[in-house]
Amino acid sequence: MRICISFVLFIGTGVLSSRVLAQYLPQLPDKKLVVMNLAAHPDDEDGQTMAYYRYAKNAVVYSIIYTRGEGGQNEIGPELYEELGALRTQETERAARIIGTKVYFLNYPDFGFSKFAKEAFEKWGGKESVIARIVYMVRKLKPDVMFTNHDTVTVGSNRQHGQHQAVGISALAAFRLAADPTYHPEQLKEPGVSLWQPKRFFWRNWMATSGEVQIAVSDPYKNDLTYQQVALDALKEHASQGMDFFAGRRSFPRYTFFRLIDKTTNAALHPTDLAGNLETTARKADLSYYLDAGNYFSPINVTLVNRPSGIVTQGDKVVIKVPGNAATTLKIWMDGVPISLQKEDKHLLSFQVPKAAKPSFPKITYQYGRFSNAPVFTYAVIRQNRIEAAGYLPLEIAPALYLDPVQPVLRIHGGENTFTFTGQSFDPSVSRFQATFTFKTEALNATKVHHAIETTKEGGIKLQISFVAPKDLPDADYPYVVTLEGVGSRKGTAKRSGTMRVLEPLVMPGLHVGVIKSYDDTLPMALKELGVSYRILDSLDLAEKKFSGIQTIVVDIRAYFVRKDLRIYNQHLLDWVKAGGTLIVQYQKTFEWNAGETDPLDPSKKNPETSFAPYSIRLGMRDRVTYEDAPVTVLQPKHILLREPNLITEEDWEGWIQERGLYFPSQYDPAYTELFEMADPNEKPQRGSTLLATYGKGKYLFTALSWYRQLQAFHPGAFRLFANMISLPFTQEE
After folding, report:
1. What is the DSSP letter of 650?
2. Is the dihedral of CA 363, 365, 366, 369 positive or negative?
3. Considering all CA atoms of the chain, what is the largest pairwise distance in Å, rounded to the nearest integer?
């Protein structure tokens, strides 16, 4: 599912206004050093160095993350895109609480692996726009030192991920421009935003064993706990990226090494301190920093009297109960703006949620409109002009009625079709619901359109839409809009639009497929949509070679990482191929596949010295095609795989999602037939994306194209070619 996100330059939402709290800031702790780390994606942040400065130097530490990681891979479940972004945001927030940092997300789209900064800047609204946003962050947060793991140059064979490059380039440019009064002077009109010149900009070189500055992150913090161990505990929170597994299995150097890229001070560089010999001024961080990263203020026990769920809607009245005499000294802010409080009795206060309040929940939709994931409502107990206690109210603002984001494409057939949409009513005054399902194409001419709505006591909504489509409906896309309305004291409306697709690939009759599943659910879904009989193969099947009645087995993405049984019994699969079976292996990563690498499931062992494939295949780290529209040349146009049961044409390669493929074989035995050639701009052609070999009486197909993304999106060409691949046992060349 994809959500359209509009980007704004400035950060007002989610940052507690320093103007509003100016009268209380003198009571906040003084901070003389502010450091800022900038990273492209969740888990790219330099946790070790941030932990050192937070705890060893008692500095204010900000983590600026450009994306929410929604374009990456998910190693713990099926969530992708915005669902994955919401998951990774939560992981990042938990990690930040361990390190003691305040996180800001800039909400640039993560569109997957890229090789070029130019592509990142294009998809992020332009290089100038990105630089301006970082300048704003520097002027707002006022760091003395900026540092990043991401290189500031884009040349060389080992250049970083294109989105990483864009971070390095834009961060360095912002370092140089933040004090320029002629650069975006309109930013300076916002309270708390003023010209600011950081003093040093560093690049952390991950591969170095020495540097101009080295930080002793392995020094003890307390109770023999090192700053590095604090950071590793935080890194484990990034489970969707496999870091809970790898953090405890990797060895890390005792120091982090830095190269000075630019400076605006004559102070001598200190060999063990990024801020060494700098003169810093006493400053006050925002209250949200002290709540998120500092733990300087203890909360009080605030009870939500009339909203125990913690969800409110625009215009709601909220009643809270506070202990002791706090009701007379409590103040509340919503996104930094003071809220007027009414006293109900000695311990009860109430306030009205503004009708124009910006929703913050559900996160999958509304987090992308906020730059800080701190809760919306902040409170403080203030006596004698001093903050005695502070915290966040456990409240989220939701729309009165919400429909979950729908899949980008729903598959329909001629005849009866039924789809289920889910949603939530957050307004208890709503007594009933009504729905409409609108077809935007006259050619669809559907009949017997029926709506059925079920609700739960908790406000959950299940909307079932059924209709009959014409039998002769041609393969095409048919737009639709689903609208849900709630009828009550306040009328809420939720609307989602999408595409229905008629897609009828051919598969050979009598086909039975085995699936060696990893953590992804795409293969069973695709086979079900194709009407193919399939069986999920478990460890016993692999151990006892229970492959009877199966013609094709498909190995899921990353299965050689998550399936220890597959690694153990791989030879049983090869024996089955040799006897006449067809085995299809989807993309795997280098460390889990390449011969001689450390076994990812047992660091004391190595991957087999012989390939998991029948003939040698070695995967490359950067051998991939990241442009989803990169031209594809079919090297074997007359091959049966391109002709039966579906004829594959140039149109089948149009409209792919995010990328062509990843971790292509860089070296492989000549026994394999290369089927396709493709390349990113200005790079040499890649021929290893899909390799086919005869092994004994059977066929072995290794394909590193991103099938899981295409099949999830019901891409017509990908479905047709996938149907041809699994049908190979019935379409052998004569």
Report:
1. G
2. positive
3. 92
- CA dist list (Å): 220 to 58, 224, 228, 272: 15, 5, 9, 15
| pLDDT tens per residue across span 380-422 | 998 888 888 999 999 999 999 999 988 889 999 989 999 999 9
Residue 411 buriedness (CB in 10 A; 0-12 / 13-18 / 19+): middle
- CB of 437 closer than 8 Å to CB of 410: no
pLDDT in tens, 643-662: 999 999 999 999 999 999 99
Confidence (pLDDT) at 15:
40
Q: Calculate the average pLDDT of the chain.
A: 89
CATH code of 32-294, in short, is: 3.40.50.10320
DSSP string, 307-370: -TTSEEETT-EEEEE-STTGGGTEEEEETTEE---EE-SSSEEEEE--TTPPP--SHHHHGGG-
**In this predicted structure, what is the pLDDT of residue 248?**
62
Q: Which amino acid belongs to residue 23? A: Q
Q: Do domains 303-398 and 401-502 have the same CATH topology?
A: yes
Q: Report whether 369 contacts 376 (CB < 8 A).
A: no
Tell me how far apart the alpha carbons of residues 106 and 64 are, in angstroms, rounded to a whole number: 7
Chain segment 674-716, per-residue pLDDT in tens: 999 999 998 999 999 999 999 999 999 999 999 999 999 999 9
User: How many CA atoms within 13 Å lie on the side-chain side of 633?
Assistant: 10
The torsion of the CA quartet 309, 315, 319, 325, rounded to 10 degrees, works out to 130
- 56/390 Cα distance (integer angstroms): 25
Q: What are 534's strand-pairing partners? A: 513
* Domain assignments of the chain as residue spans, ordered by start: 32-294, 303-398, 401-502, 512-730
CA atoms of 589 and 592, how far apart (whole Å): 6
Q: Is the dihedral of CA 411, 412, 416, 418 positive or negative?
A: positive
Q: Among residues 345, 320, 315, which one has the least CA distance to residue 331?
A: 320
d(CA 476, CA 473): 8
Residue 645: exposed, middle, or buried by beta-carbon count in 10 A (0-12, 13-18, 19+)? middle
Tell me yes or no: is domain 512-730 CATH 3.40.50.880.
yes
In CATH, the architecture of 401-502 is Sandwich (2.60)
Which 3 state secondary structure label does DSSP give 636? coil
Which structure tokens are listed for 459? 């406000």
Give the containing element (helix H, strand E) for 467.
Answer: strand 460-469
**Domain made up of 303-398: CATH architecture:** Sandwich (2.60)
Q: Which two tokens stand for residue 419?
A: 């789809």
pTM of the model: 0.83
Give Cα 518 to chain centroid, integer Å. 19
pLDDT for res 490: 67
Q: Give, for 593, the enclosing helix (H) or strand (E).
A: helix 590-593
What's the full length of the chain, in residues? 734
Q: Residue 693: which of 713, 667, 673 has the closest Cα?
A: 673
